[in-house]
Here is the input.
Amino acid sequence: MSVTFDNILNFRDVGKTINDYTGRKLVREGVLYRSARPDDASLADRKKLRDELGVKTVIDLRSKTEHAKQAEKRQADLRIPALLQSNAALAEPVQIPGLAYREVRVTGRRFERFLLRQLSWWNYFKLIFLFVLGYRMRAVSLLGREVMLPRGLVGLGLVTMDESGADVAEALRTFIEPSSLPVLVHCTQGKDRTGMIVALVLMTLGVPTSAIQHDYLLSQKGLEAEREGRLEEIRELGLTPEWGDCPKDFVSKVEAHVNSKYGGIDSYLDSIQLGSDERRRLVEVLGA
Here is the structure.
């Protein structure tokens, strides 16, 4: 079943994607969905998520900065009558009634502290100065140029795994609660943080690397419709257009990092306090 939406990009059923690619039933279908941010979902989109697909829980992996920026955009859109006429859902609450929302900031405080420690003293004080004066986005852009950009998108993903273990575990625990399913997991673009969480789930289920990579790379086409707008947001963060793409080696490098630094997916999950009983439940709930 192919699912299309008016205003939700990069949406797919992870189980169906994997099973269709491998020709085997490896992942339960209709329980784990992924997408870009659903903030602008139309009334029809909302109904489809809640009533047709039966989504019960939304896991939002975005940062405070991203939430603040999106809230500003929504307020601006509400002042444009033409936009209200074209999408009546803008006048509705962002969160869809009847769905449970969990904000899991996988790039939260530990991750942020790690990035700050990479700054020179001069840039650190400059960043603090910008924040104090209210120039939040300029401060974020400074951090992007000086720290995030040199590490690259994949490198930053590995840092997230290492520094945000508790948050990663919190996200993964949501999937092992049958009452939470079906789940929609997303970040802003629904490709990197979402891709990392989904990849870890699929690795735990024993899905072949090639299939996980296939699922991840579908985001390249899934985001094409709003590429220019996304690139503008990326530039505001002090990053380059490549950050809007899906690196072909993302999944292979995540797997290599898990194997080389931790000794495998089970050992990595042990390190973030997601024990064998929880892993077994994850397989029972999401495995086909």
The radius of gyration is 19 Å.
